[in-house]
């Protein structure tokens, strides 16, 4: 009986932890597009940001590309906030509270496409 | 190396057989004609020879071949060829290029040393037979002399423009070049067609090429003037001429680094060159086969 009650207590605690992790994050930040494929050194593109949070009435959005940019006094929910990003590696976007506490974050993944050059002849063409 | 006319026929048969039999297995040609940006190095060990048509000059042996290629933007360097490709699209490119003239290779010091080693090469005498010997001789009569006493021919560099068009698995190209080094002020052009077959790790390339050489270029390398006549050669004035080339390549890719490579080229010289007293062979077969390591 004692063992059973301990087991039930453990399951209850686990459930609460799960519920907390699932529903406490009542917010998100999304960026579109999520990937940038470039043949250049830097990726330069226009992106659109959507976000939502219940934690704060106004929020900031921090964009870390070539520099760190902060867009504050934004409402708790926003759609199609357009900016231009430029970087030579992944670009991080964060949703922050007015006190600049991180709430959510997302990334734009950057992929360098290796440029193929056209040859005058195949490799190891001897004559 | 002198070859008979049947070799030409053989290559043509190979070309036709390959065109019909390998077509269903062929895939895109793109990968073979593309290179990564940056430096690419390799070395090959094997055996082959570049046929040398010049009298008493040995074929040039090939044992080790380097591959030094650099692709940077619109510029490329591949062994001795430098190219700038400012115009290009999905299936065409136009390049300005600089490369060494192959005729100069036949007279380089290296091949001259080899020829000196093989003084008694056993080549048949080309002096005309005595009158009344009973055999009808060709119209062209060559008188040979001492090849070591002819005037020096320098290796020249050519620069020009080349246009390439890719269509399905074919590559058509045309180039026109003029001399940079100012030894002969010659011109050279060519038209060529190549058919590429790629299947699994196998690569087969078959090609035909028609080269045109201006009179200045031919006369510089193959003409026979005062010094050559003093060395015992009959006089000869070079005219604009053609070279007809048939080429076949086979490569097998073991992995990223290791490759088996082979090339064979049959070349026929037109009479404008072949009639020169400095020329011994007008049908030439060059080949190479070996293993290549790509760094």
TrEMBL record, chain A:
One Pfam family name from the record?
Answer: DUF3019
Signal sequence annotation = 1-26
Q: Which UniProt keywords are given for this protein, alphabetically ordered?
A: Signal
Where does the source fall among the domains of life?
Bacteria
- This protein is called DUF3019 domain-containing protein
TrEMBL record, chain B:
Residues annotated as signal peptide: 1-26
Question: Is Signal given among the entry's keywords?
Answer: yes
Instruction: Kindly state one GO CC term assigned in the UniProt record.
Output: cell outer membrane
Alphabetically list the UniProt keywords.
Cell outer membrane, Membrane, Signal
Pfam families in alphabetical order: MipA (PF06629)
Cellular localisation: Cell outer membrane
Lineage top rank: taxon: Bacteria
Under InterPro entries, the record lists: MipA
- Similarity remark: Belongs to the MipA/OmpV family.
Protein name per UniProt: MipA/OmpV family protein
Q: Which organism is it from?
A: Pseudoalteromonas lipolytica
């Amino acid at each position: 009986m004692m063992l059973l009650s301990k087991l039930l207590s453990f399951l209850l605690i686990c459930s609460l932890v799960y519920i907390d992790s699932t529903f406490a994050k009542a917010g998100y930040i999304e960026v579109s597009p999520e990937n940038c494929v470039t043949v250049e050194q830097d990726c330069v593109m226009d992106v659109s940001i959507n976000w939502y949070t219940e934690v704060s009435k106004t929020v900031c959005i921090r964009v870390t590309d070539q520099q760190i940019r902060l867009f504050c006094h934004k409402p708790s929910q926003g759609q199609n906030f357009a900016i231009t990003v430029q970087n030579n590696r992944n670009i991080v976007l964060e949703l922050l509270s007015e006190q600049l506490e991180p709430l959510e974050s997302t990334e734009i993944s950057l992929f360098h496409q290796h440029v193929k050059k056209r040859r005058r002849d195949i490799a190891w063409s001897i004559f | 190396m002198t070859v008979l006319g049947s070799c030409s026929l053989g290559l043509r048969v190979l070309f036709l057989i390959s065109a019909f039999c390998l077509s269903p297995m062929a895939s895109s040609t793109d990968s073979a004609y593309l290179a990564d940006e940056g430096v690419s190095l390799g070395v090959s060990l094997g055996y082959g020879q570049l046929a040398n048509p010049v009298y008493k000059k040995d074929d040039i042996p090939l044992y080790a071949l380097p591959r030094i290629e650099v692709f940077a933007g619109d510029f490329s360097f591949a062994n001795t060829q430098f190219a700038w490709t400012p115009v290009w699209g999905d299936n065409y490119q136009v390049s300005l290029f600089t490369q060494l003239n192959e005729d100069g290779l036949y007279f380089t010091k290296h091949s001259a040393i080899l020829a000196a080693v093989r003084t008694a090469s056993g080549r048949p005498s080309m002096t005309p037979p005595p009158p009344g010997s009973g055999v009808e001789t060709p119209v062209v009569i060559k008188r040979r002399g001492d090849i070591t006493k002819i005037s020096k021919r320098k290796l020249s560099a050519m620069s020009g423009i080349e246009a390439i068009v890719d269509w399905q698995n074919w590559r058509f190209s045309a180039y026109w070049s003029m001399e940079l080094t100012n030894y002969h002020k010659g011109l050279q052009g060519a038209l060529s067609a190549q058919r590429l077959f790629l299947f699994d790790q196998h690569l087969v390339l078959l090609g035909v090429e028609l080269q045109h050489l201006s009179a200045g270029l031919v006369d510089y390398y193959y003409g026979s003037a005062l010094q050559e006549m003093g060395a015992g050669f009959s006089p000869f004035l070079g005219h604009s001429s053609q070279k007809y080339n048939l080429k076949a390549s086979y490569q097998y890719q073991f992995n990223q680094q290791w490759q088996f490579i082979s090339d064979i080229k049959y070349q026929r010289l037109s009479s404008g060159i072949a009639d020169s007293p400095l020329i011994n062979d007008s049908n030439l077969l060059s080949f190479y086969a070996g293993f290549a390591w790509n760094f």
